[in-house]
């Protein structure tokens, strides 16, 4: 009987420490969005360390969606939706034929980066711009740094009378489409004039430009760069420039980012707490794609208005709630790798996002990533909670580096008082690269439900359930039960029978 007991213990111990056998991981290749590329670099590096073979190349969202559609890559990173690319005449048919799902992977923001000096030649790192002024600048209507609209929000003291050099993306870009969606809402008249001048006046009202070659041809003072790194590097090295780029690149290259006025009349920069606050007003459609007009007008005083989610694009099995799903990878090993990568991004991958210049997903969108995993794998969706997911938002935080520095004008009475006094700032404001402390949430004006839902109070919430990544989870418990019945029970019965025979008279 002692031998039997030892055998039972060994079987159960083996079950408790041995995960279910998985398919061999096949390397996968992704490409597309440069908006998400700094986050992707963190995810890919850590995934490779964990034995998940992934590579990613930033080529721009439209190129990523196209490459995914013709199967030259296994997944795409994108902010551009298939429908918007079709409307812009870029294509999209192969992507629809292959089938896809939108999977939110991180929250981010576009910074308005600049390089200017004051009349004394001192670097300016306190530039304040309201939304309409940004729209007019990037529509080519405001062309000089001494323009009264810029002076009005910077202490009433004019900047040098120098031409404004715009810096943007060359080629097709999802970041360009995101930014000009904001411009269209911030300054509708100047935006429409810009579209007509750039030979894009025939676009549907809801279609945004993804390429600015027409603006250059129209004589608008634009310098177009091949990628996001080049935009940040060019702005850093060239005075009198202003450009749009994901905030992570401003941090990476130590480039100044403008303070932008939000709908509450507050001046903010794109730190994680400001991104998270803004995106509580994102309208998420049933397929998880986003409509951002509510973000631009969000009354929360912490809102940074040029904020948006980024997405993975992956295959998925036909599903009643996703009419774009067609089929999965022909190689089961690729499915296994993609599943493990998405599981990593949903939880552990969110830990460093605030420090990198992004904001971690809210809990419900981490759960939506697990639901997307289920549509790919065919297995039930893992239910996330604070016990099994390291995403800081499951623990009431946004992570280290989430808090925005204080507005340098506030200590001097604010923009309005400074403008009336005409004195301008006495000292330079804090640099973009300043590291902020961890925060326990997006701050005043937010409630827990907003943070959890990331875009809609009636959106799907994650239901807590016990699960540990790579641990003895639901499959392990089921397997243990089966083995207990099939293997252990007959052994126990046999032992009891022998004992009964020995004790019989």
TrEMBL record:
Membrane-spanning parts: 475-497
Signal sequence, renumbered to the chain: 1-24
Pfam family, one: PBP_like_2
Residue span(s) of domain PBP: 23-315
Polar residues bias: start-end ranges: 381-394, 425-438
Residue span of region Disordered: 381-460
Family note: Belongs to the PstS family.
Name this polypeptide is given: Phosphate ABC transporter substrate-binding protein
Source organism (scientific name): Amycolatopsis suaedae
